[in-house]
Specification:
The protein is mainly α and 43 residues long. 74% of the residues lie in helices and 0% in strands. The chain has helices at residues 5-20, 27-42.
Length: 43
C-alpha cells in the first residue's frame, strides 16, 4: 500500500493533536476529536 504526502501529513497532524491533549475522559471523546480533525481536513 502506498502513501502520499497528504496522508502522511494528516497522520502527523492527528498524532500531534492527540499527543497534546493526552488526557481523554473516555474513548468517545478521543473519537470525537479525531473525527472533527478529519472532517476539517476534508473541507
Amino acid at each position: 500500500m502506498r502513501t502520499s504526502n497528504a496522508i502522511e501529513r494528516v497522520n502527523q497532524e492527528l498524532k500531534r493533536r492527540t499527543r497534546v491533549s493526552a488526557l481523554f475522559s473516555d474513548a468517545d471523546s478521543l473519537r470525537r476529536l479525531v473525527s472533527a480533525l478529519l472532517c476539517d481536513q476534508s473541507d
